[in-house]
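User: My advisor, Dr. K., asked me to get a structural model of this assembly before our group meeting. I'm new to this, so sorry if the format is off. These are the inputs:
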Amino acid sequence: MARPMTMTEKIFAAHAGLDEVSPGQLIRARLDLVLGNDITAPPAIKEFEQMSDKVFDKDKIALIPDHFAPNKDIKSAEMAKSMREFAKKHEITHYFEVGRMGIEHVLLPEQGLVAPGEVIIGADSHTCTYGAVGAFATGVGSTDMACAMATGETWFKVPASIKVELIGKLNKWVSGKDVILKLIGMIGVDGARYQSLEFAGEGVAALSMADRLTIANMAIEAGAKNGIFPVDAVTERYLAGRVTRKYTPVTADPEAEYVRTVVINLSQLTPVVALPHLPENVRPVNELEPTPIHQAVIGSCTNGRIEDLAQAAALLNGRRVHDDVRAIIIPGSQEVYLEAVKLGYVEIFINAGAVVSTPTCGPCLGGHMGILAKGERAVATTNRNFRGRMGHVDSEVYLASPAVAAASAVLGRVAGPEEVI
Amino acid sequence: MQFSGKVWRYGNNVDTDVIIPARYLNTANMQELAAHAMEDIDPTFAAKVRQGDIIVAGKNFGCGSSREHAPGALKAAGIACVVAESFARIFYRNAINIGLPLIELGDGDINIKAGDTLAVDLDGGTAENLATGEKFTIPALPGFIQDIAQAGGLVSYTRQVLAAKEGDYE
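Assistant: The format is fine. Below is the predicted structure of the whole assembly, which you can bring to the meeting.
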């Protein structure tokens, strides 16, 4: 009988061909998907070409130009081109051209490319998003990506796990973003360093897949290797019609070992923001001093899904973006964009005086489509508020949910949705 | 491997956005990126850093993005190794993969100041602050992480793995 294991340990054991694994153990694991983008894939391709002339499996690599795409300048165009040519040469099945692409972590779950029990690495730190569907997924660098494209395997140190027990149910205008910011505020930006965050408890069942994707997405902001959710009816409903291949969900053993348990009562959460310049600087919105803003960004791999845009549309419907604010709304994929058009959200946004962009990571990392000047402040549904993240080194980013970002856009200062409704 | 270098000292949670801001990532040329390394927290770094210098920092060095450009830019700027209380995991992995030595000393204030000279003996597992005479033990890398480091990084290591596999199949 194998030792009782967490979800992450079980997935690792299965992918390393072992009966059991323990925290700290070094393993080589087989990979179900290897991901790269227009910033990280080009250096990976150069290194790959020093090692091999053949990818391990053309169906198990995803290449997505999303960070600086549509190309923001000549140098980014050259990088996107090198990835495109590589995809063509190796007949990569899951290359998504501009017009079909989305922000990678919105796109891959939507396209059914990640499934329960799978192991996914991506040369992007927010690859941990896919833990929402019960997969093990983590971010790596370009060299790891290169070697993985050649071998279909990589090395891992099996992480210890923290159990995050969710109880209760979210109130109106409180969402997954508030849950993960609350958790990061509790344990800090290195509170889960080298560890896995395993979400559990009766509160999980009432969380939408969009909420779970947002929560798992920011596991890295607590330093975690991955964040992972149990597979339940909500997951199965989301996967139906998206994932057609066979997959093997895992469940944590009741006696599995956790280094600690953190309990969050969802019923008690209120909208929060993370103040500059760390995601752990979390405060309830209604406790802030009046804080004027210059820009609101709604989108990103954290909050670029249709449920996120629905929250923003509900608050912007019939209202106007404040005169001093640029509101920038970025659907996370073409599918999200089209749905937002069909549901009338895009019309609401335009009538409110917001701009609606094609899918891109753009402003989140200070790339393009909304860079901040010196002394400017943004409320953003993105995931990092480090110094200089969205532009000038003396600009500021307040991280928040789509509801808080939309309310702030209307009032011209950091504000909760209740102040608008 | 033995070397000594002048210390650049930073605090906790030095993130990859300040090690190399994303606004410069429209190139993966590490020499070009080195000219902007650390500029958002230390505008003097790129101009004054010398080949063989050493960065010493607090907790969670390299947190944030997975960009390998971060350890890559530091290495290209001449940094011989990074010493910290702890490292964010992707940075840790990336640095080993590209052959930038890291020394993780564990929680607790590290008594090394900017401008001190640190002598490092990676094979012997010791380091000494020549300014104070204080000695530090360098924890050994576990298992095949050591093999990766000794191969000079993951690309050379993987070449060995691939060559061994071909042998298996033929």
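One thing worth pointing out at the meeting: Residues 142-170 of chain B form one domain.

User: Perfect, thanks a lot.
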